[in-house]
Each structure stands twice: as structure tokens, then as C-alpha cells.
Design brief:
The protein is α/β, with parallel strands linked by helices. The chain has seven helices and nine strands. The strands form two sheets. Strands 2-7-1-8-9 form a five-stranded parallel β-sheet, sandwiched between helices. It has a four-stranded mixed β-sheet with strand order 4-3-6-5. Bound molecules: adenosine-5'-diphosphate and guanosine-5'-monophosphate (5GP). The site of guanosine-5'-monophosphate (5GP) has 15 residues, from strand 5, strand 6 and strand 7.
Length: 193
């Protein structure tokens, strides 16, 4: 098989605890750079209002996720919250690379570390950090997407995730949103050169 049959491209991995601003930054970058495309993950969590299957996530039942696992379809996956699994499909990476895109991933810290280790030369991993844990929890609460139990689980997990910050290439502190977005644009412009 010639190397062109399965071209390897680049990976831009955005990671952070829930509520730090990954989705906000990723959406902005996708609007700014045509070269980027979003890796749609598979998940067993239910869709939030407004989320679209195949765009935000591939929403799967537990059985469907098990079957995909059995068939070795994931590049990485994690049970991020009890009973809630999330994974990057190998087919998604191949699809976007075949279109010549640099792929943007929105992953929790362990999946981000695993994916970076799979593609050390091709990836840039950015950890987004809220100015303080208190501000992080406040943003999560204000987003109003979670019920009390889901909020509690996310806050508990965030404490673990915060300890991973120094394992990534760049830590981007998300204080003033406009400044964060400008910094993210500069980082990506350089990465795409
Ligand atoms: P994540 O994808 O990491 O869970 P989101 O992008 O959903 O985080 O951001 C969490 C919440 O915080 C959202 O309501 C978002 O609008 C808000 N937010 C993001 N960045 C900032 C910021 N710099 N200042 C204030 N609020 C922010
Ligand atoms: P949410 O439920 O808020 O959409 O996502 C919960 C967490 O799962 C976030 O930290 C998000 O980055 C992470 N996540 C989403 N998709 C994947 C994936 O494919 N793999 C891993 N490891 N984490 C993911």
C-alpha cells in the first residue's frame, strides 16, 4: 500500500475539565480556520437539547458502544463519568485526514494523553484552564446543562483533571474570553504553518 492511501495528518487536541471552555474555544477555531475539522466522538450519554447526532456526537446505546469496542473501532475511549463512555472512532480520524483536514479533538485529559501518545509527532495538545477552581465550578453551574447529580460528578472529576495540566504542550488560561480566543488563534496559526 502506498503511503498516500492512508495519509497521516495533524491533530489539535483541546483538553480541560468540564466547564473550562473547550467547546467555546473549539467552536471559535472551527469558524476561523477552514483547515480544521471537528472529530465527532461516540458517546453513551443522552443528547442535550439542541445537540445533533453526527454533529455534536454519535449518540450510541450501551450495546452499540460495546459492539464498536469489540470490533476495535476506537483509537481511544474512556468512561468519563459512571456509565457514560466517550470514544474517538478510528474511522473518524481516517475520514477527516482523507479530506486533508487538521483534526480538532475535544477530549478529557486521559483520552487526550493517550491520543497524544499514539501520534506524538503529529499532535499539539492544549490544556484550557479556568482562572481558579471556583470560577470553573461557577461557569459549569451557570451553563445550566447539568442536573445537581451530574454537576457533583463533574466537579469531583475536575479535581483529578486539573492535576494533568502540565502534561500537555500548552496551558491556555481562559480568563477574559476575547483574549483567550485571540491567543488560541495565534497558537493554531503557528501550528498550521
Ligand atoms: P467545556 O466545553 O470545557 O465544558 P464550555 O465551553 O461549555 O466548557 O464553557 C463552560 C461555560 O463557561 C459556558 O457557559 C461558556 O459560555 C462559559 N465560558 C467559557 N469561557 C468563558 C470565559 N472566558 N468567561 C466567562 N464564561 C466563559
Ligand atoms: P460532555 O458530556 O460535557 O459533552 O463531555 C464530557 C467530557 O468528555 C468532556 O471533558 C469531553 O472533552 C470528553 N470527551 C468527549 N468526547 C470524548 C472522547 O471521544 N474521548 C474522551 N476520552 N473524552 C471525550
Amino acid at each position: 500500500m502506498s503511503s498516500n492511501a492512508n495519509p497521516k495528518g495533524s491533530l489539535l487536541i483541546i483538553t480541560a475539565p468540564s466547564g473550562a471552555g473547550k467547546t467555546t474555544v473549539v467552536h471559535h477555531l472551527l469558524k476561523q480556520f477552514d483547515e480544521l475539522a471537528f472529530s465527532v466522538s461516540a458517546t453513551t450519554r443522552p443528547a442535550r437539547p439542541g445537540e445533533v447526532d453526527g454533529k455534536d456526537y454519535y449518540f450510541m446505546s450501551t450495546d452499540e458502544f460495546d459492539q464498536a469496542l469489540e470490533a476495535d473501532k476506537f483509537a481511544e475511549w474512556q468512561e468519563v463519568y459512571p456509565g457514560r463512555r466517550y470514544g474517538t472512532l478510528k474511522s473518524e480520524i481516517e475520514r477527516l485526514w482523507s479530506l486533508g483536514k487538521t483534526i480538532v479533538f475535544d477530549l478529557e485529559v486521559i483520552g487526550a494523553t493517550n491520543l497524544k501518545n499514539l501520534y506524538p509527532e503529529e499532535s499539539l495538545a492544549i490544556f484550557i484552564q479556568a482562572p481558579s477552581p471556583e470560577i470553573l465550578f461557577e461557569r459549569l453551574r451557570n451553563r445550566a446543562t447539568e442536573d445537581e447529580e451530574s454537576l457533583r460528578v463533574r466537579i469531583e472529576r475536575a479535581t483529578l483533571e486539573l492535576s494533568y495540566a502540565d502534561k500537555f504542550d500548552i496551558v491556555l488560561v481562559n480568563d477574559q474570553l476575547e483574549q483567550t480566543l485571540r491567543k488560541a488563534e495565534r497558537i493554531v496559526s503557528e501550528f498550521l504553518l
